[in-house]
# Entry
Amino acid sequence: MPYPETLKAKPKCIFFTDFDGTITLKDSNDWMTDNIGYGEKKRRQGNMDTLENKITFRDSFKEMMDSVTTPFPECIRLLCANIKLDPYFSSFYKWTRSAGIPVIVLSSGMTPIIRALLVHLVGPEAEDIEIVSNEVANRPPKSKEEEGGWMLKFHDDSDFGHDKSLTIRPYAKHFEQHPEEPRPTMFYAGDGVSDLSAARETDLLFAKEGRDLVTYCEREGLPFTVFEDWQSILATTKDI
# Structure
């Protein structure tokens, strides 16, 4: 349920999370770029240029996706065959459902891919996960089913293409305006450059070990908790 409906159940916690490379072991967009796009070397250079503020994430990511010309249904088929779930995410999601904790995916990926992978990897119950992300559009005069027929449609006009902070901030603002209401603890889990816009917005930030988000947080002096997998996230969240 989108804001403000999420708050009607008065959850004790709200868990925002990245999808690619965080819930999954590999980033689906990186996989497409490396295997059916312009390749890993150019992609990694784009990531480094983004971290060093030489290029916006929006421009870097658009270049990545523009390099993938495989028909969109085939992209989804390839991803379902090659992308694996963090082995402990299903247990985490099962616990959040029983505890009444909303899980909201904030992604710079594309909704049809994320939904297809979640249902494929987690099961039909993953249909209940709210997804806020970019979309996919036909590339005129072609359609998504054709070679070179699809393109990325960004969520907003920000330098990120999808500024994840814009989804999180209304929750914090709500409780500033309604201090009489019990405020849920807000979490965010991420791994890479697409998560920079969300890094300062929640009560506790989980950053995946060895990934670009850790580098950014260390450089900027932002507090974070390192995680290897969702088993450690589950243990920490239960404790809180």
Q: What stands out?
A: The radius of gyration is 18 Å.
